[in-house]
Predict the 3D structure of the following.
Amino acid sequence: MPNITIDDRNVHFTVGGTGEVPLVFVHGGFGSSADLWRETIARLPPGYRGYAIDNFLHSDPPPGGFSVHSFARRLVGFSRALDLRQPIVIGHSMGGVVCQLAMIAAPEIIGGGVLVGTGASTRNNALAARLLEEMRAGLTREKVRDISRNWFENAPQAFFERYVANAVQAPPDAMLAVQESLVATNLEDRLDAIACPVLIVHGLRDTGRTLQHANGLRRGIRDSVLVVIDASGHSPMVDTPKEFDAAFHGFLASLPTRRAAFARHRHDQRQTNDRTA
């Protein structure tokens, strides 16, 4: 597993694919790691190279402590440090909030986004609040296993066992701090600052997020499309990989056209504003 120095801290990541178009994957919160994206990266079409940051297991704590905001700073720094040109950022659950923050903070860096099983806030998300209380009460291996079942509808058993094995190694205080920051973050009024094309993927059987969260992203992000996968839970790339890849790879193929159309729209909008000023 390679590493890179960002803000004087070692950050570990995995990498796969043989193309030149950069994709940066961000895992979720509780118990998650770069391993979440292993199979997704292995299935990438020709022309793409995937990088998956590992925030909990092998990387140093961010300078500002564990939070979605620190992870967003790390994501932007990672793209700059590797000199990635207009990377597409892909985030699951908590990682989706990290990607939203990065797209808002650094529109000149990020070239597109894929938001999976996430939202702009945890409003009306009872599971997020319950998870926070359970984490504060302390976690046993069996409790970690029970909580992890919420994230998958149809995960292969070998994958699930590997996920739990990684989850019990993650620092509990780090996961708790990130969950607290996640619950405290609300980006609903800032989504219109995202200035790149975005794909939103949501599993209809998701117990971690509701369809209301996905629809909120769709309404708030100007250039976005929502794909709902009926048979999937919180993690479509694991539960229904064929359906997820169809949406994901199709979005990647459409990006050059979408970016050009969005650039024309922004140019026309600026000219209109100049004429009326």
User: Anything to note?
Assistant: Residues 15 and 51 are 4 Å apart (CA to CA). The mean pLDDT is 91. The chain has one domain: 3-276. The radius of gyration is 18 Å.
